[in-house]
Write a structure and sequence with these properties.
Elements lengths: L6 H16 L8 H27 L4 E5 L9 H7 L3 H10 L4 H7 L9 H15 L4 E6 L7 E5 L2 E5 L11 E3 L5 E5 L2 E3 L2 E3 L2 E13 L6 E11 L8 H10 L10 H28 L7 H4 E6 L6 H12 L4 H11 E4 L10 E3 H7 L1 H20 L5 H7 L2 E2 L2 E3 H8 L2 E4 L2 H11 L1 H6 L4 E3 L6 H7 L2 H11 L20 H26 L8 E6 L8 H17 L1 H6 L3 E6 L7 H18 L8 E6 L4 H7 L5 E4 L11 H7 L3 E4 L5 H8 L5 E2 L4 H10 L4 H7 L1 H8 L12 H9 L5 H20 L1 H14 L5 H13 L4
Parallel strand pairs: 1-2, 1-11, 2-10, 11-12, 12-16, 16-17, 18-19, 18-21, 19-20, 21-22, 22-23
Antiparallel strand pairs: 3-4, 5-9, 6-9, 7-8, 9-10, 13-15, 14-15
Helix pairs in contact: 1-2, 1-4, 2-5, 6-33, 8-10, 10-11, 10-13, 12-13, 19-20, 20-32, 21-23, 21-29, 21-31, 28-29
Length: 786
C-alpha cells in the first residue's frame, strides 16, 4: 500500500506508525521518534520499488562502482524528493504542527566519505538510479567516519565520528550473502595455505531513482570474525574489527600502512567474490562473466580487484592465465583522479608480499608479461620501460596495474585527461592509444540545486516551467533572459535569502556575525597545499593591511566576507598549520573595529555535505585557485556555478570547461597556465625568496605572521616552506590573484552586470549534471541497458 498517496492517507499512516513504534502522538513525540517513524514509512515504499527493480535488472549487465568512499550526506531529504513525496509529507507535517526541517536535520551525515572522490561517487549512484541503469556501489561500512573537526585556539582538533550511534535506517544487513577474505598465509607446493580469514558481511544501502520506481544499492562490507574459527585470540578480533573501523586510518606508521592495504583488499575481494556468487546463482557460465559485469575502479584504492579476479578465475575456477586475463581486462575500467605523483599509490613490496602472498605472485606474473610486451615494442628505451613497469624500486605501482589490466582509462576533466595523455602517462597512451578517454565530472542537480536551493528552483520554475527539473538542459534558455530586470531581481532576492540562512548557521556555529550584503567569497574543500588556501589567506592579510594604511582603498572597498571550510588529514602537518594560520588571522581581522565592517574571515567547523547544502547556494564568489595542472577536476566549482556564483580561479581542472561554457568574461581567471607551471618546474629556476625580497606586499603579508602569537616564530615553518620551496607557486601567482580580486570587488558594485553573469553561469551549469557524465560512461564504457 502507498501510504504517501494523499496528505490525509500519509497523516493517518504516520500517526499509526508513531503509535505502534513508540506509543506516542505527533505532538508528544521526540525528534528521534518522528524521524524513525517517517523513515520507517519511506523504507516500506522503497522496499516495494526495490523488489520490482531487482526483477527488472535480474538478467541485465551491471556496472559495479568500486570506491573507497561514498560521501552520501543525509538521505532522508534525498529519498523523499526522489520518491516524489516530499510535498505530501511537508503538507501533512504542517497540519500536525511539525517542522519537517527539524526532522531532516536529525539525521547524521553518513561517515562513509571525506572529499570530492566520495561525493562524486554518491552523485554517480544517484544519476545511475535516476537514469534507470543497473549501477551499483561497492565499499566499506566504516563504523567511524573520517573525524569530527573542532577548532581549539585556532588549531584543528579531531574527535571520533560516531555516525552509527543511532540506527542507520537506510541499510539492510544481508548476513546470508557474506563472503570469506584471506590475508597473510604462504605458498607451499604450489598451493595457498595457512591464511588468516576474515568474514565480509554486506549491508545494502538503498539508492532511490528520481520518481521512476528504480531502487539500486550501495553494498558496504563490514569485517567480522570468520565462521571458520571458534574461540580466537583477542588480537585477531582487534585486527579484524580495525578493517572496517574507520575511513582513512592514519598511515604514518607501518601498522597504519598495513591496515590501509588490508582495507583496499578487503572491499575489493569481497566485491569480486560477490560477483562470482551472483553469476553462479543465476546459473551462468563463469566464462561469460564479462558479458554480465563491468567493474569501474574509482581511483587506485580498488586496484586489487584485478589480481583478485585473476586469483579466483585461476585458483578456484580452474581457468588458464590467458583466458582469465581476457575476462579480467574485458571487465575492468579505471578512472584516474590525480596527477600528483605522491597521490599515485605505490606499495612497498615486502609489506604487500607479507599481507597478500598469492596476490603478489599474480602481480609479479602480470608485471613479467607486461615487460615482455614492452621489450617487443621498440619505441621505448630502458628508462621508459623501468618507469612503466608495474614493479620498480621495490614498489608496486597501483595505477600501472589499473592501466595494464583495464580496457578503459579515463580522466575526469578535459585538461586533466590531456595532461595524462601527453605528459604524465604519455608512454602508456602511446602503447594503448584507444584506452584513454575523458569523462568530465558532474554533480547531481537534484541534491545540489532542487533540494538545497528550493528558492532558486522555484524561480526557475517561474521562468522555464517545471519541465527543466526533468530536462536540465532547458536551463540554457535563461541566457535569453539574462538582461530581464524581473529575473535579475528574483535571482538577487534568492541569493540574499540564502546568505541570510548561511549567516545564521555560521553565527550559531562560530559566534561570528556576517554582513549579508557583503560579498560572500567562499573556499570549501579538502585542505591540501595544491588547493592553495594559503594564497587566499595571504591575500586577505594584504587586504587587511591595505585597509589599515590606505584611506582611498578603504573608502572604495566593497565589504567582503571570506569563508573557509576544510579538514586536514590528521597526519598532514603543514595543512594543519595552515588551518591554524587562517583562524588566527580571522581572530585578528574580526576584532579590529576600524575595518571589520569591511572585512570578515570565517573558518567553519566540520565542513561536510550538510554544511555544503547551506554554503553552495549562498556564495557570490567561488574560490577555485589550485596551482594549474594539479586539480584533476573539482566538483565544488560546479555546485557553486549551478547556484549562481562566479568563479575566481586558475585555468585548472574543470575550471577550463566552466570558462569555455560560460565565457571567460563571465568568470575571473588569473594566474599561470598548466604549461607555464610545467615550464617553471622543468627550468628549476624558481626562486620564491627573490619574490619576497622584491614585492613589498608579499613581504609585509608574510612578516605579519609574527604578530599573530606571543611567539613571533609560531609560523616560521610555514614561512620557511614559502620562501625556500613554494612548490605550488603561491608567491608566483600572488600579484595576479590580487588583481583578480580587485576586478571582482569592483564588478560586484555593478549589480546589473554581476547578476547577468550570475544568470549565465546558472544557465551553462546544466552541462555539469552527473546525468550527462553517467550517460557518457554508459555509452562509451559500460554499455548497460535501462
Amino acid at each position: 500500500m502507498n501510504n504517501f498517496k494523499t496528505v490525509t492517507i500519509f497523516e493517518n499512516a504516520y500517526k499509526d506508525k508513531l503509535k505502534r513504534m513508540f506509543n506516542t502522538t505527533p505532538m508528544g513525540s521526540t525528534n528521534y521518534e518522528r524521524y524513525q517513524a517517517l523513515a520507517s514509512l519511506v523504507v516500506e515504499l522503497i522496499n516495494e520499488n526495490k523488489i520490482k527493480t531487482e526483477e527488472n535488472f535480474k538478467d541485465k549487465k551491471k556496472a559495479i562502482y568500486f570506491s573507497m568512499e561514498f560521501l552520501m550526506g543525509r538521505l532522508i531529504t534525498n529519498n523523499l524528493f526522489n520518491l516524489g513525496v516530499y510535498d505530501t509529507v511537508k503538507k501533512a507535517f504542517i497540519k500536525m504542527e511539525l517542522d519537517i526541517n527539524e526532522i531532516e536535520l536529525f539525521e547524521s551525515d553518513a561517515g562513509l566519505g571525506n572529499g570530492g572522490l566520495g561525493r562524486l561517487a554518491a552523485c554517480f549512484l544517484d544519476s545511475g538510479a535516476s537514469l534507470a541503469l543497473p549501477l551499483y556501489g561497492n565499499s566499506i561500512r566504516y563504523r567511524h567516519g573520517f573525524f569530527i573537526q573542532d577548532i581549539k585556539k585556532g588549531k584543528q582538533v579531531e574527535y571520533p565520528d560516531n555516525w552509527l550511534t543511532n540506527p542507520f535506517v537506510w541499510e539492510e544487513r544481508k548476513i546470508e550473502e557474506s563472503v570469506e577474505i584471506p590475508f597473510f598465509g604462504e605458498i607451499k607446493n604450489g598451493s595457498f595455505q595457512n591464511q588468516i580469514w576474515v568474514k565480509a558481511v554486506p549491508y545494502d544501502v538503498f539508492i532511490v531513482g528520481d520518481q521512476n520506481q528504480v531502487v539500486n544499492k550501495l553494498r558496504l562490507w563490514s569485517a567480522e570474525k570468520s565462521d571458520r574459527y571458534g574461540d580466537v585470540e583477542e588480537n585477531y578480533i582487534r585486527d579484524t574489527m580495525q578493517i572496517s573501523e574507520q575511513l582513512y586510518p592514519d598511515d604514518s606508521t607501518e601498522y597504519g600502512k598495513l591496515l590501509r592495504l588490508k582495507q583496499q583488499y578487503f572491499f575489493s575481494a569481497a566485491g569480486i567474490k560477490n560477483i562470482i556468487n551472483e553469476q553462479k546463482k543465476a546459473n551462468r557460465d563463469i566464462k561469460d562473466l564479462d558479458k554480465y559485469y563491468v567493474c569501474q575502479i574509482n581511483d587506485t584504492h580498488p586496484t586489487l580487484i584485478i589480481p583478485e579476479l585473476m586469483r579466483i578465475l585461476m585458483d578456484e575456477e580452474g581457468l588458464e592465465y590467458d583466458e582469465a586475463w581476457n575476462i579480467t581486462t574485458n571487465m575492468c575500467a579505471f578512472t584516474n583522479h590525480t596527477i600528483l605523483s605522491e597521490a599515485l599509490e605505490k606499495w612497498n613490496v615486502d609489506l604487500f608480499k607479507l599481507l597478500l602472498p598469492r596476490i603478489y605472485e599474480i602481480v609479479c606474473e602480470i608485471n613479467k608479461r607486461f615487460n615482455i610486451v614492452l621489450e617487443k615494442d621498440n619505441r621505448f628505451n630502458d628508462t621508459d620501460k623501468n618507469n612503466m613497469a608495474i614493479i620498480g624500486n621495490n614498489e608496486i605501482r597501483m595505477a600501472h596495474i589499473c592501466i595494464v589490466g583495464s580496457f578503459s582509462v579515463n580522466g575526469v576533466a578535459k585538461l586533466h585527461t590531456d595532461i595524462l595523455k601527453h605528459i604524465e602517462m604519455k608512454n602508456f597512451n602511446k602503447l594503448y592509444p584507444k584506452k584513454f578517454n575523458n569523462k568530465t565530472n558532474g554533480i547531481t542537480h537534484r541534491r545540489w540545486l532542487i533540494q538545497c536551493n528550493k528558492e532558486l528552483s522555484e524561480t526557475l520554475d517561474k521562468y522555464l516551467t517545471k519541465s527543466w527539473r526533468k530536462n536540465i538542459n532547458k536551463m540554457e534558455k535563461l541566457i535569453e533572459l539574462k538582461d530581464d530586470e524581473n529575473l535579475q531581481y528574483d535571482i538577487s532576492q534568492v541569493k540574499r535569502a540564502k546568505k541570510i540562512e548561511l549567516a545564521k548557521v555560521i553565527k550559531a556555529d562560530t559566534g561570528i556575525s556576517l554582513d549579508v550584503d557583503s560579498i560572500f567569497d567562499i573556499q570549501v574543500k579538502r585542505l591540501h597545499e595544491y588547493k592553495r588556501q594559503l594564497l587566499n589567506i595571504l591575500h586577505i592579510i594584504y587586504v587587511y593591511q591595505r585597509l589599515k594604511s590606505d584611506l582611498a582603498f578603504k573608502n572604495n572597498y566593497y565589504p567582503h566576507s571570506f569563508i573557509f571550510g576544510a579538514k586536514a588529514a590528521p597526519s598532514y602537518y603543514i595543512a594543519k598549520r595552515i588551518i591554524q594560520l587562517i583562524n588566527l588571522v580571522a581572530d585578528k581581522v574580526n576584532n579590529d573595529f576600524e575595518t571589520n565592517h569591511l572585512l570578515k574571515v570565517v573558518f567553519v567547523r566540520n565542513y561536510n555535505v550538510t554544511y555544503a547544502e547551506h554554503i553552495m547556494p549562498a556564495a557570490d564568489l567561488s574560490e577555485q585557485i589550485s596551482t594549474a595542472s594539479k586539480e584533476a577536476s573539482g566538483t565544488g566549482n560546479m555546485k557553486f556555478m549551478m547556484n549562481g556564483a562566479l568563479t575566481i580561479g586558475t585555468l585548472d581542472g574543470a575550471n577550463v570547461e566552466i570558462t569555455e561554457l560560460a565565457g571567460i568574461d563571465n568568470e575571473i581567471i588569473f594566474g599561470l597556465t598548466a604549461k607555464e607551471v610545467t615550464d617553471i618546474y622543468q627550468s628549476g629556476n624558481y626562486r620564491p625568496y627573490d619574490i619576497y625580497l622584491h614585492d613589498e606586499r608579499i613581504r609585509k603579508a608574510i612578516d605579519f605572521f609574527e604578530t599573530l602569537s606571543a611567539n613571533k616564530n609560531e609560523f616560521q615553518d610555514v614561512k620557511h616552506n614559502l620562501l625556500n620551496r613554494d612548490y605550488f607557486l603561491v608567491l608566483k601567482d600572488f600579484d595576479a590573484y590580487v588583481k583578480a580580486h580587485e576586478i571582482a570587488n569592483d564588478l560586484y558594485k555593478n549589480r546589473k552586470l554581476w547578476l547577468e553573469k550570475s544568470i549565465i553561469n546558472i544557465a551553462k551549469s546544466s552541462f555539469f549534471t552527473s546525468d550527462r557524465t553517467i550517460k557518457q560512461y554508459n555509452k562509451d564504457i559500460w554499455k548497460l541497458k535501462k
